[in-house]
Inverse folding.
């Protein structure tokens, strides 16, 4: 069976993506820091008839993340789809208040984490001549929000690299794309706040994987 590795897996969008791909015959590897939460997600997927396993790792720690992905490959044979959507935590930081210290956690998780993840899975994809790399950012990666300046810097770097991968790997059978989500993920939101259910957004990821055309997909109001 093909395998999807979801980096930054949680009970929202990550779980929904796992259910969509698992429902199409994929085994699922879930990677995040909290083992107890991973165990709960694995159990929920098992109830849906989906084979899944959790691999605890701090995405900001490249060695841990690489080890988790290597463990996934050892367990399932290879990784066919990588979905990268970690949560570095949002802080209210204006452009003038960005420092090396408050930017570093965002860069470590969102940019360096993405690079480490791709380095771990890309050799196998290139050898197979097939694979999908899907990255998730906020809408601020495209049009930055003044109050999220540190996160936007890291997300913009990740987005730029994802598009660059798309443009350079297609001839080798690898599809890469960035998904920029510019609304609240959920089944409800405060009045006037745009939102979309994670189960609906997850279908977009499946469509990107199967059509393999767009370098970027924007999810917004």
């Amino acid at each position: 069976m093909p395998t999807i590795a979801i980096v930054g897996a949680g009970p929202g969008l990550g779980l929904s993506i796992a259910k969509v791909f698992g429902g199409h015959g994929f085994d699922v590897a879930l990677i995040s820091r909290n083992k107890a939460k991973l165990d709960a997600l694995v159990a929920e997927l098992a109830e849906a008839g989906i084979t899944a396993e959790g691999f605890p790792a701090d995405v900001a720690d490249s060695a841990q993340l690489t080890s988790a992905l290597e463990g996934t490959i050892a367990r399932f044979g290879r990784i066919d789809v990588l979905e990268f959507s970690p949560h570095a935590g949002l802080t209210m930081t204006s452009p003038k208040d960005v420092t090396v210290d408050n930017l570093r956690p965002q860069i470590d998780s969102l940019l360096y984490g993405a690079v480490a993840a791709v380095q771990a899975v890309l050799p196998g994809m290139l050898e197979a001549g097939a694979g999908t790399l899907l990255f998730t950012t906020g809408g601020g990666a495209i049009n930055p929000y003044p109050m999220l300046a540190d996160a936007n810097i890291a997300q913009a770097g990740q987005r730029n690299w994802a598009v660059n991968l798309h443009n350079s790997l297609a001839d080798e059978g690898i599809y890469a794309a960035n998904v920029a989500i510019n609304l609240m993920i959920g089944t409800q939101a405060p009045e006037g706040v745009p939102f979309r259910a994670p189960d609906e957004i997850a279908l977009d990821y499946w469509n990107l994987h199967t059509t393999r055309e767009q370098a970027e997909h924007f999810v917004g109001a």
